[in-house]
Specification:
- The two termini are 25 Å apart.
- A hairpin with a 4-residue loop joins β3 and β4.
- By secondary structure, this protein is of the alpha+beta class.
Amino acid sequence: AVRLARNLRVEAGVAPTQRVTVFLRGEAAQQLAGHKALIELLANVKLSRRIAPRGSLSGVHAQFELRLPLAGLVDLADWTARQEKELQALESNIQRMEGKLNSPNFVERAPAVVVGEERRRLADAQARADRIRENLARLRG
């Protein structure tokens, strides 16, 4: 929960020193609530079990979800523009990597370690792009 809260903070561009409220839901919410003080201290957050407002970033774990509302923390128009710019760059990189991996010359001639690393980078970029699309869709309602 601490790592997820910190990741949401970074994704939103909120300073680590700024205390924010995150909303906790899911199967493990009751168990995590038992460690509320520790989570709040380590992540510099205030945990709430209420329903998160619209316009929130979400981080999902197998048994719980954290949501960080962006309103009041960041300029939503500026944040959205940065995310769209990052998404465009990711999509360009994804196309380049897919082209490289679809090239028989690259796959046959490059060492297996290099091909594997390129596949890992592609998967990471695709996951990041999917996450940005989800967040943008959620914010747009």
